[in-house]
Recover the amino acids of this structure.
């Protein structure tokens, strides 16, 4: 599975951005996908997850009510709509996919896309 993020950029506080994560390869093995972020000098933290089958979503408390994770299975793409952005949302955002097939699991990451929120 290969993952490619896009959509990052510079935005003022209160603004919006939409990130995309395009998946390719053995995408039928993907059980769940998610977004993580890593700010300078900090550990990578979980942002949101979406289940591939039922579409169940979960969010970190810090983004709940502002961010929305979604997927388009036909396009093999996952999205993160980010509204009401805050300077503390500044980070590199990574796409993640978890796979499980025939008794074997996998954990895949994209290269990341920078999101910068100015105050």
């Amino acid at each position: 599975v290969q993952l490619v993020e896009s959509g990052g950029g510079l935005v003022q506080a209160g603004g919006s951005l939409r990130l995309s994560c395009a998946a390719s390869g053995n995408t039928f093995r993907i059980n769940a996908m998610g977004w993580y972020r890593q700010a300078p000098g900090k550990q990578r933290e979980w942002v949101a997850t979406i289940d591939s089958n039922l579409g169940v979503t979960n969010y970190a408390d810090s983004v709940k009510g502002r961010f929305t994770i979604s997927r388009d299975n036909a396009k093999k793409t996952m999205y993160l709509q980010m509204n009401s952005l805050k300077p503390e949302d500044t980070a590199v955002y990574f796409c993640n996919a978890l796979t499980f097939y025939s008794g074997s699991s996998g954990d895949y990451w994209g290269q990341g896309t920078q999101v910068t929120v100015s105050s």
Remarks:
- The chain has a mean pLDDT of 96.
